Amino acid sequence: MDLRGPVRDFLLRSLSRLERIEMVISNYSCYDYLQGRDFICIQSMDGMLMLFEQESYAFGRFLQGFLLPGPLAYSSRTDSFITVSSCQQVESYKDLKGVIVTLSDDGHLQCSYLGTDPSLFQAPKVDSREINYEEMNAEIKELQRIIREATKTQDILPESEKQRDLTVTAEVSPDLDEESQAIDSEVKAGAVPSVTVKITIQSRVTAQKPSLVVCVQAPLAVSCDQFVFDDLEPDSSETVVLSVFLKENCSPPELEGTCMVSYNIATGIPRVSQCSFSLPLKLVCFPAQPSKAANHKLTIDTNKPPISFVTLFPDFVDPSEGDQANALGFQFITGSKATLLASKTSQRYRIQSDQLEDLWLVTKELIYRLEGHFKKQNCKDFECTFSGSIPLQEYFELIDRHFELRLNAEKYQELLSERAVQFRAIERRLLTRFKEKTPAPLQHLDTLLEGTFREVSAV
């Protein structure tokens, strides 16, 4: 090879020595951690990993259980060094600065890093080329055209897969359960009603490991919320029956539930199918005498004449009253009451109650039944509007009250914990006194124990 001329000069310039370090090494690895900067990792004969940044020594670490040097390689994917120990075990090392290592009670080791890595972004050079606005507008229009074509309604699945592989349906019983299925309900009422929901799963293909989850929003609850089935064969079905009831002593925000089935098809691809169902209003309330006065009122305007409550609420109105009933009372099983009034001279409905939160369920049920009534009559221009002022002040007061209750709950929880610790400490001291051969005077420990017990019971 001829090294004369420009080639020789280039090699001499490339191989100029920058620095010389005397050391005894057995293995080394070079890696480019940052663009434009070289890092070198050296494994010494005594089992020490030394890291150099450019020509400067950064830090070193001794390997545990080291006997003889082994091969050393750098993995850019995991940003770590991989070597083989004397025990014929592959080991990976990553030296992190500023890491907090914690071990949880259940044996999980966690490395936590405080702060963020420094930003190494360098601003690119400014392109001085002038912007062609006509070309940009043409490109934007072309992209918008592509987006419109892609978002058009079209069949994603082939013709043979238009029908769903698995369908789930829920059927709510029109009547409440004769024998309530409420379990561990906190409602203070004498009898908490429940309603039966029948859920059917129909499969067109082989469904592997299907599982059903039924969800209702608290304070509602279900008698059983999870079901696991064997593999479903094509054109087979499974049916389960459960009950929904009010568990906590407050009104629910909505009377709806969701059923979701997860399964795998024969190719192993996971699929999910779901449906929703609506619960009857009489699950949380029953008919009562309407009230003439209330603290909170809400007026709904419509563009159609008022409909008789016998037609809208046949499950709450006695048919013997006929069309003369223009007031309807709802007694919630939590103890509160709401009243629904229909105007005889205007197209308005009024919902009123002593508690603001009780207005929502009756209002939502009224609008739902009105829309269903006019939909059956093929009336497409029915509208419900609200022209009054939104009761924000009352709403904010409810939020403040809720926040205050949460604070009181935490305060009483801390107080109960303190009194419980005090009670156990007194018990230990009394037990020690009673075990002595010559018991010493109790020094009113029994009185203190009795007083602490009363405080714990009161909390």
Structure characterization notes:
The chain has 459 residues and is an alpha+beta fold. It has helices at 6-14, 133-150, 309-312, 359-376, 392-435, 445-458; strands at 25-34, 37-44, 48-53, 56-62, 72-75, 80-84, 90-93, 99-103, 109-113, 166-176, 194-203, 208-216, 220-222, 226-228, 236-246, 256-264, 270-278, 285-288, 296-302, 327-332, 337-342, 348-353, 384-385. A six-stranded antiparallel beta sheet has the order 18-20-21-22-19-23, covered by helices on one side. The protein has a four-stranded antiparallel beta sheet with strand order 1-2-3-4, with no helix packed on it. It is extended. The chain starts with 5 loop residues before the first helix and ends with a helix.
Please estimate the helix content.
10-25%
**Rg, alpha carbons:** 38 Å
- CA-CA gap between termini: 95 Å
Q: Spans of 5+ residues with little confidence (pLDDT < 50)?
A: 1-13, 155-162
Secondary structure blueprint with pairings:
Layout: H1 6-14, E1 25-34, E2 37-44, E3 48-53, E4 56-62, E5 72-75, E6 80-84, E7 90-93, E8 99-103, E9 109-113, H2 133-150, E10 166-176, E11 194-203, E12 208-216, E13 220-222, E14 226-228, E15 236-246, E16 256-264, E17 270-278, E18 285-288, E19 296-302, H3 309-312, E20 327-332, E21 337-342, E22 348-353, H4 359-376, E23 384-385, H5 392-435, H6 445-458
Antiparallel strand pairs: 1-2, 2-3, 3-4, 5-6, 6-7, 8-9, 10-11, 11-15, 12-14, 12-16, 13-15, 16-17, 18-20, 19-22, 19-23, 20-21, 21-22
Helix pairs in contact: 5-6
